[in-house]
């Protein structure tokens, strides 16, 4: 792969011919490369820098201090290196996860609902500003992608309409420098929702797997299929080279499901470098209780209404099952299991 395509996203997307052409180019870039770049304007660049600086300050604190920022009703908070597992193997990444910040009293016993144990007001302000910036970008991108998929100006909100009160979340990541025996940062995986919008520092280490002709892709939302560890030992992984003043964007599982595989949830993984590395992975998502259906329920869609696979995905259930899979030992997972909270999913709207 040569250079990734880089797009400039207009401030408003209304369905003009130019919007339709831009969306089409984005869809084609994903179908070729699995990922594209968007140019960050000055304000976004400042938010990215401030979030990465706050992240460095937090991760520099002593381990015992960081370990206190956890919560057992949500998956928000600190995750030590080695605590996350992908395909049954520990990831080296150290993470602070931010899910929607919901007071315990309002969590209504729903799995994954609860507060964010913010480490400081400054950290919170930097991350919330970043979330606001990429959240607005995510909305505009979803409208462009809908146009690019041929849904027309009348269908411009078929994707963005799912995200009112969206379960947007973020992983704030630090990767240690590689040791001679260990180069795994995060194992191969896909992410779960509509869009992944990622930022990284200048170190490098992220790889993606573009669509490979003839390669069957697992449907990560089905209990018997998983993208964790997918194609880990095959060739065709391409580095996402750090580029100044861009964010990278790729599709998650929900877009693969909704498009019947016309868009694929991009597998990716992280290798450790000779230095530590900092990154921000933001996930632009449907609302927790959304029931997701394929855009074209009549087409011969993999995992659609065709008999095999799911007819609809309950997004919150998919999210919950994926986090339980990644954090089998976490107090949040144990609580969901011991209190049988999965049965409350049906009540989520
Ligand atoms: O480190 C990165 O650039 C991406 C991290 C990632 O894949 C994730 O947090 O899901
Ligand atoms: Fe990821």
Describe the protein in words:
- Helix content is 27%, strand content 18%.
- By secondary structure, the chain is of the alpha+beta class.
- The chain has a single domain, classed as Jelly Rolls (Sandwich).
- The strands form four sheets. The protein has an eight-stranded mixed sheet. Strands 8-13-10-11 form a four-stranded antiparallel sheet, with no helix packed on it.
- Helix 1 crosses helix 4 and helix 2 crosses helix 4.
- It is globular, with a radius of gyration of 19 Å.
- It binds 2-oxoglutaric acid and fe (ii) ion.
- 2-oxoglutaric acid binds next to strand 7, strand 9, strand 13 and strand 14.
Task: Please outline what is shown here.
This protein has 349 residues and is an alpha+beta fold. It has one domain: Sandwich (Jelly Rolls), CATH 2.60.120.
Based on secondary structure, the structural category is: alpha+beta
Major sheet summary line: 8 strands, mixed
Based on CA atoms alone, the radius of gyration comes out at 19 Å
- The CATH first-level class comes to Mainly Beta
Bound molecules: 2-oxoglutaric acid, fe (ii) ion
Quickly count the domains. 1
The helix content is 25-40%
CATH superfamily: B-lactam Antibiotic, Isopenicillin N Synthase, Chain
- β-sheet strand percentage: 15-25%
Distance between the termini: 42 Å
Put simply, the count of helices is 7
Looking at the structure, what is the overall shape? globular
**Strand order within the widest sheet?**
1-2-12-9-14-7-6-3
Total strand segments: 16
In N-to-C order, the SSE pattern is EHEHHEEEEHEEEEEEHEEEEHH
